Amino acid sequence: MTRLLTGLAASIALSACTTVEDAPKGDAAYAIIPAAPAVGMDYRIAADDVLRIQVYHEPGLSLEDAQVTAAGMVRMPLVGDVPVAGLSAGEASDVIAGRLGDRYLVSPQVTVFVKKAVSRRITVDGEVREPGLFPVEGRLGLVQAVAMAKGPTRLASLKQVVVVRQADGARAAAMFDLSSIRRGEAPDPEILPGDMILVGPSRVKTILGAGLLALPAIGAGFIALDGGR
Length: 229
What we know:
By secondary structure, the protein is of the alpha+beta class. Helix content is 21%, strand content 26%. It has 6 helices and 12 strands.
């Protein structure tokens, strides 16, 4: 975690004088948080993901909880290990069908569904009780994301909760008032896989440094942070 935070700090351009307190707030911040499906059509299977593999009319060959190995394989009856890491669900279906059709079945119909995308994670850091990496399963809001880290510490400023996101090839950041969200006075923004949540203020300032956020802003809400993830 220390190396991750050090890398983040090192990647941020220090040419601007803007501080984290100047990150977009309110409507400007919410405008950049789009709704998104839990697992999009372009999602690529990764190690440790759990798949449901259905072979039409062949219940003995179908699998309900097939975990992808560290080597990116899924073990199928009859054909053994099949490489699926880096493939979409549709592509994995075609590969498995091809293996089964080579020797065992005539024109097999295979459907692959990603039940648990373990590779989809977020980072929660700053003034939280248990900072770390957490898996995203389905839709996730900011309140729940902070709760996954056992909630804020007594030193946390809930009015300064920053979400850092990769957008259009660059880092971007937006600030939210977690206390208002908890009271139902503001909507709970959606947190997406790959996001980093920094609960401030002291830790956020330490991580991002004196020249924290590089301009110009991206889209409608985030301030861009120079450098990639």
